[in-house]
Amino acid sequence: MASPDLIPPAELITEHSGGISTEQFIAMGDEIVKHSLIGAAQLRPNGKILDIGCGCGKIARPLVPYLTQEGRYDGIDITHAAIDWCQLAYQGFGNFKFHLADLQSSRYNASGVQKASNYRFPFESATYDVIFLGSVFTHMIPEDASHYINEIGRVLKPGGKCLATFFVLDDESRRNVLAKKTTPTFSHRFGEECRVESEAVPESAIAYDETLIRKMYSASGLSIDAINFGEWGRKRFIPHWQDEVWSSKPA
User: Where would I find the H helices in the chain?
Assistant: First the structure.
């Protein structure tokens, strides 16, 4: 079991993990690691994983007892408070590193100095077996998301797997959005292939047309293996039940 010292303060979880409780933070992290990263993505104890949008360590915590010293975890986030806390809390675990990406974001880092569309991940090419992005592309405009997907294609090993969550607009979810049944509502068009919750702050929540997602992945040399549709726009109209896009880099 990971040390209880790796559980962030409740106020940090609330601010940087989508308003969930400490209990939800623990349960969600355990579930993602056990079923998605170890089970579906087949992350090995000596594997290397990149957590983009790591927040305050939701999936890092349950990976501590799993990864061996030959394994490696790198987390990236744009929020100073989350990275500061993780760097201090995980200082005794040499194979766990947390990196601040000081990027401009009207929602999360208004004082950021660099655009996401120009940000190069600070890692060598073909480094990672698994890459995870939880609720990252749901807060990125297409120009930035496309660049991130290019970078994922660069740092992922041949044969490696990536799991990213989106709000995906397919026929069913788009129909429910237009009927004003969903949360988020995505009431506004953003370009030809996206919808946003707020015109003033499009990064607060953004939904992508499935065809645009497939175009971006294809252009980056990644194969989409599956899209597992969540329930936000289809069955139970609640937030956080996002859609999973599973992709891989051809070996």
Answer: 10-16, 22-31, 60-63, 80-89, 142-155, 171-178, 210-219
Spatial distance between the Cα atoms of 113 and 223, rounded to a whole number of angstroms = 32
Give the Cα separation of 30 and 48 in Å (integer): 18
User: What gap in Å lies between CA 173 and CA 208, rounded to an integer?
Assistant: 11
Question: What digits encode the pLDDT tens for the residues 129-187?
Answer: 999 999 999 999 999 999 999 999 999 999 999 999 999 999 999 999 999 999 899 99
pTM of the predicted model as reported, rounded to 2 decimal places: 0.94
Q: What is the pLDDT of residues 64-83, one digit of tens each?
A: 999 999 999 999 999 999 99
CA distance 186 to 239: 12
207 vs 56, 90, 149, CA distance in Å? 24, 34, 16
pLDDT digits (tens, 9 = 90+) for 12-29: 998 877 788 999 999 999
* Cα separation, 166 vs 34, whole angstroms: 21
- Say how many Å lie between the first and final Cα of the chain, rounded: 34
| Angstrom distance (rounded) from CA 26 to CA 150 | 31
**Where in 63-122 does DSSP place strands (E)?**
72-77, 96-100
The C-alpha atoms of residue 99 and residue 137 are separated, in whole angstroms, by 19
Using DSSP, state whether 5 is helix, strand or coil: helix
